[in-house]
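Retro notes (design track)

What went well: tokenization of the new backbones is finally stable.
What didn't: we kept losing track of which sequence belonged to which structure.
Fix going forward: every design gets posted as structure first, then sequence, in one message. First example under the new rule, 352 residues:
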């Protein structure tokens, strides 16, 4: 297209080329013409203006839309300098190419704004401190440090599957396509890609929470009878969840959980496979006390508290894990004898 513009310029068919570009690129021809006039006027003032012309002197640029011929009028008189046509032609060409670049940039931005929330493959091409930039095909994407998985290495030329988080504009009107490896949406999109039932909305994702690179929990449910939402996401012999895990680097454990409207059931599922003795729910405070045998407490809490924290985020309840001492079988008494807890001596007297 740029080559055709050059040829059209040489053949004095500039505006034919302009209209062609305007049609193909969605550029307003009138706006481009006004831009050309401003650029031509700036070029004239830079190279041909004389001290005798004051700031108040009216200078007008007239362009023949049929031929592209450009003239400078000062106080209504044609004062076009000799050889100015070449400068005007070069200026017009630069304006058109700039408009094309700006239009293509806007079209690209709109494209990726519509793609927000979807998956994209990117290759690391450069760094800015701890931040990384990736080639995503048509554009360059920005992976901030806080959107990275902290146990993952972003070496030059390594490729990753990412989620497009947003298109952000800075104070200088520059746009950045923000991508993420840490956002829960990445896991949701990966399951949507791998599980046909999720893509078809037979299985619905209620919520995803994660500690990126270490552990994630995804709650799923289905309104259709006979559909096992958890089994669908796990896949035969675990192939579907395994594919998602490998895409995340292979280290992030994913718990797939059946969503329940009953908070006690949902919390029980979220903490599985922990064996829970009982759960006390305070719905107004969104608080739950979960009683477990002391041997089950480490499993419920998880390393560095990750398991219980993720379960809390998933269910929306603050969860307290309360340990209960394990009672030896010899000390378990029939229900009829559990009315009063006496000192050990009293218990022995009862046994006698």
């Amino acid at each position: 297209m740029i080559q055709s513009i050059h040829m059209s310029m040489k053949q004095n068919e500039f505006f034919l080329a302009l209209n062609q570009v305007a049609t193909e690129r969605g550029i307003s021809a009138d706006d481009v013409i006004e831009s050309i006039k401003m650029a031509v006027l700036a070029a004239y003032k830079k190279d041909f203006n004389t001290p005798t012309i004051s700031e108040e002197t009216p200078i007008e640029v007239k362009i023949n839309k049929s031929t592209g011929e450009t003239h400078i009028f000062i106080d209504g008189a044609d004062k076009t300098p000799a050889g100015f046509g070449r400068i005007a032609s070069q200026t017009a060409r630069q304006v058109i190419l700039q408009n094309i670049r700006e239009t293509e940039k806007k079209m690209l931005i709109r494209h990726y704004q519509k793609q927000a929330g979807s998956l994209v493959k990117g290759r690391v091409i450069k760094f800015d401190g701890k931040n990384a930039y990736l080639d995503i095909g048509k554009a360059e994407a920005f992976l901030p440090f806080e959107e990275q998985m902290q146990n993952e290495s972003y070496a030059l030329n390594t490729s990753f599957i990412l989620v497009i988080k947003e298109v952000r504009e800075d104070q200088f009107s520059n746009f950045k396509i923000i991508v993420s490896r840490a956002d829960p949406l990445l896991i949701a999109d990966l399951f949507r890609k791998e599980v046909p039932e999720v893509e078809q909305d037979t299985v619905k994702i209620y919520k995803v929470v994660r500690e990126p690179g270490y552990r994630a929990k995804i709650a799923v449910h289905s309104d259709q009878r006979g559909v096992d939402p958890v089994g669908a996401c796990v896949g035969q012999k675990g192939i579907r969840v395994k594919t998602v895990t490998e895409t995340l680097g292979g280290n992030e454990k994913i718990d797939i959980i059946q969503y329940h409207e009953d908070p006690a059931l949902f919390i029980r599922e979220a903490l599985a496979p922990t064996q829970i003795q009982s759960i006390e729910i305070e719905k107004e405070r969104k608080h739950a006390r979960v009683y477990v045998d002391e041997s089950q407490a480490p499993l419920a809490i998880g390393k560095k508290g990750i398991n219980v924290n993720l379960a809390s985020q998933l269910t929306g309840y603050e969860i307290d894990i309360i340990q209960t001492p394990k009672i030896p079988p010899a000390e378990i008494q029939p229900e009829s004898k559990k009315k009063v807890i006496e000192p050990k001596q009293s218990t022995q007297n009862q046994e006698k």
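Added context from the reviewer: The chain has four domains: 2-114, 119-180, 183-259, 263-330.
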